Amino acid sequence: MTESTLPASRIADRLRAHVGELLRLATPVIISRAGLVVMMAVDTAIVGRFSAQELAYYGLAHLPANLMVGTGVGLLMGVVAMTAHALGAGDEKECGRVWRRSIPYCLLLGLLFALVSLAGEPFFRLTGQSPDLAAGGGAVLAVLGYGAPGMMLYVATGFFLEGLKRPLPGMVAMIIGNLVNALLAWALVWGHFGFPAMGAVGSAWATTAVRWMMGLGLFAYAWWMSDHERWGVRERVGAWWRESHKQRHLGYAAGLSLAVESGAFAGLGLFAGMISPMALAAYTVGLNLTALPFMAAVGLASATAVRVGVAYGRGDRLDMVLAGWTGLGVTSVILAGVGVLYLAVPEHLAAIYTADPDLLVRVAPLIAFTAWVLVADGGQVVMANALRGRHDAWIPTALHFISYAVVMIPVSAFLAFVMERGERGLFEGILIASVVSVTILSLRFALLSRR
Fold this sequence. Notes:
Layout: H1 8-50, H2 52-75, H3 77-89, H4 92-117, H5 120-126, H6 131-146, H7 148-163, H8 168-190, H9 200-224, H10 228-231, H11 240-243, H12 245-275, H13 277-313, H14 317-344, H15 346-353, H16 357-389, H17 394-418, H18 422-449
């Protein structure tokens, strides 16, 4: 019996199995990914309640910092894809070799990001920020850079474990990291437990310390897990740069794609800073509340890539198709539910981040508007990962460039400055670009599904 002649009941059984497996894999990944944004959300709330000006420093520094982390995540995406492919093909030792080759690579990336972070202040001045804003944001960015190698180590090891269908350790590390970060940020920002009040720089030190803790902790788990011999975790690898060509090649496309997307959002943040420090603070809060449910989409996207990748490894076309569309459907339903919440209580959500009445007036409408952004933005990251799971690397990158560089940046600038819609215009540009992105990526997946 061929795929085309499978009865509807068999296809329905496969679909139910995909939904169950997707949620099983995605739930801990969602918590891990969402934990990154929860950490930022907690820091944003702590810093925002300390001072609106310090929140502007914090928000400005995280524009290039998030760009670098997003790029690093993309560059390391080949780890989860190649681990999943090796698992699907039954080559268990290769799984560990994929991870071992990723360690020097991820630490090299982290070191480069740390060095770039030291040039924050002159970069911000070149982009039109005020001297005070550039100095404050540059100081925060430099401290965040010190934690970049630890963050990349956490990402590489987490991807390896997710490729093995073991996302729980990454989730546990993220939960512990968030608890430690909340306490450290509270102490360092406000000056508790004998520390001086450091404002936004204090939150950056807390984040840096926690990122190293999570990276080293997850590495230790993978190295000493009980069945490390089965996966070849401690086996020697040869010339890691030459032998990791294939997984780096997959990562180049994903890294460029996420760099384009993250860079576009960073560009919008710089636009907000050009409007005013208050507009930048409002943009920071609005983007944070967009990013929090988006991390659920990223977790579902990662699980979708694993499901598609395993099916690709064993040559099952029907399962690849079902895995991709199931990921999109489940993600859309979940994010639509979050959107209803954002529409219902935007003022209450805004009050979590600030007590400044002027900032509250600007933030609440942005939160309500992000309800319309969530489904499209989440859907596009799922479809991009579904395509990468079946080794379609560069076309999704090109489509991301069209959506976020060609569409979002000029449209947002036009709405914000020419139409004088301020930070609201920036978010309207995000919505338009996200709709374009999910549409063309879905069409690409539908086209490949027919082959």
